[in-house]
């Protein structure tokens, strides 16, 4: 249901007639018989429009009260449609009303059809302006976003399973928590989920919670009104309002200041918030997707993260595996990034030699997919010919243990390897032999899938 229209007039008959006319056209309304009552209602309600008289004192035709009210309304809300209406009409008063902030002017007695046309037009313009403002802010956010951009490469069994799970939960509105190491592409999977959801025509708003300072948290998330604090020169739309009817993606949610977590929880549970400096409560309808590389259960145990907030954000939890566990995706991703780099620089094509491909598959990838993207760009720049060799990848021996063969059952030069590195090498090779199928690799070693991953992670530390 749309927000009501506020009718302000000291004449009860006028208020009643306007209310009936608006109701017939499907517009709900509330009434105030004076500017004082109107201001009280404006503090507690959100209105789609204001229709106001200009004179509220008998035998007064100066319109000063109404003009002062319009000016204050415009200062409080730059987007609110205001229609001035009076029985003492003149060109001079109409001009003054527009100068003080009114969008249009109607003289009593009005023509119903004309008044409704004005109301409908102003509401449509306000909706379009608000959407344009949200799009402008969203475009700026997209331009400011850091990190890599890639397609979703799903050659490995692990990522195919992730995509299948995301597809399954996309049509519902349940909260989803994406977990995984830095650089695994959690933001891309959030986008994938949004694009499959019923909210795909609306905005996906991303917020890096690690970049939101404690002092600016409320302003950033909920917005502020003009004059709310010293630097509040204009009204600001918060991230929740930007994401209304769409998806809100809270990245690095573990970094949310503890002092602000209760405020975040309240909005997620009640779907309501107040802008900084405003007493008026606004409703919001969002689908929440959060992401973290932290162990939130441990954070709860250490008092760094609220347990009730954790319960609220992880209705469905999906783990994004690191790149070293998705060996089947490494070369397809490398070729994808290489193609993007060639397109970016409008340069001659480059190809990976067999040695370079082997080096990529053998590398541990502590920075995951993001690191792969950066390495491919660097290699393209450093390679003197059209062939990218292992040396152009600049994968250091400390990060990349020396191997002799890629066959999973062969021996390796273990003279300079630790026991963990030897075990890791064996596990990674076994996984590669089965084309990234962790279940098959684990079964061949007599291990469960979870034990296989646990030992792989332990060996890689």
Automatic annotation (TrEMBL):
Keywords from the UniProt entry: ATP-binding, DNA-binding, Nucleotide-binding, Phosphoprotein, Transcription, Transcription regulation
Single annotated GO MF: ATP binding
Response regulatory domain location: 4-123
Source superkingdom: Bacteria
Span of the signal peptide: none
Modified residues (4-aspartylphosphate): 53
GO biological process, one term: regulation of DNA-templated transcription
Protein name according to UniProt: Alginate biosynthesis transcriptional regulatory protein AlgB
Domain Sigma-54 factor interaction intervals: 152-381
Originating species: Pseudoalteromonas holothuriae
